[in-house]
């Protein structure tokens, strides 16, 4: 597995993968909210270290990190359960210094994934960062 830093001309590709992943995993998200998020997300990219993750030449996912906080990690929904997410999170922790992440409480698979990846819940917020009614769990990497 390898990754590269995303460029502005990758944004459309990233958004397409994001939308497929969200449709497959975020069943709790209202369609209107998903469409608004899709419009908002590109504005976050310039402030993040956005990486595209590949197996050979196949794009398998992307991540976005700000300082030591994982802001986003999305995997191609056709490739879940194959260990790629685990490889990505290990690299993000070991190579990019990730120590925290927020996750939608209603995204039970993602929550389980992060808990299995050595994160622990430290707090909970009743809404997302934009005040939408989606509870957010704040997780920190357990001390090693």
Tell me what the structure shows.
The chain is of the alpha+beta class and 144 residues long. The chain has one domain: Aminopeptidase (3-Layer(aba) Sandwich). 35% of the residues lie in helices and 31% in strands. Strands 1-2-3-4-5-7-6 form a seven-stranded mixed sheet, with helices on both faces. The radius of gyration is 14 Å and the shape is globular.
CATH superfamily: Gcn5-related N-acetyltransferase (GNAT)
CATH topology: Aminopeptidase
Mind summarizing the main beta sheet?
7 strands, mixed
- State the CATH architecture: 3-Layer(aba) Sandwich
Number of helices: 4
- CATH class label: Alpha Beta
Q: How many structural domains?
A: 1
The number of distinct β-strands equals 7
Q: What letter string, H or E per element, gives the SSE order?
A: EHHEEEHEHEE
List the helices and strands and how they pair.
Layout: E1 2-5, H1 11-25, H2 31-44, E2 49-55, E3 58-66, E4 69-75, H3 84-96, E5 100-104, H4 108-116, E6 119-125, E7 136-141
Parallel strand pairs: 4-5
Antiparallel strand pairs: 1-2, 2-3, 3-4, 5-7, 6-7
Helix pairs in contact: 1-2
Quickly describe the structure:
The protein has 144 residues and is of the alpha+beta class. It has helices at residues 11-25, 31-44, 84-96, 108-116; strands spanning 2-5, 49-55, 58-66, 69-75, 100-104, 119-125, 136-141. It has four helices and seven strands, in the order E-H-H-E-E-E-H-E-H-E-E.
């Amino acid at each position: 597995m390898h990754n590269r830093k995303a460029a502005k001309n990758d944004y459309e590709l990233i958004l397409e993968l994001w939308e497929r992943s969200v449709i497959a995993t975020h069943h709790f998200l209202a369609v209107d909210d998903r469409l608004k998020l899709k419009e908002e997300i590109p504005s976050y990219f310039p402030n993040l270290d956005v990486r595209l993750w590949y197996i050979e030449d196949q794009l398998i996912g992307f991540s976005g990190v700000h300082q030591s906080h994982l802001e986003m990690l999305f995997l191609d929904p056709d490739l879940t359960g194959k260990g790629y997410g685990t490889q990505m999170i290990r690299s993000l922790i070991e190579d990019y210094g990730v120590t925290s992440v927020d996750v939608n409480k209603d995204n039970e698979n993602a929550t389980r994934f992060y808990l299995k990846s050595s994160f622990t819940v430290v707090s909970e917020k009743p809404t997302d960062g934009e005040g939408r009614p989606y509870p957010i769990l704040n997780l920190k990497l357990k001390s090693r």
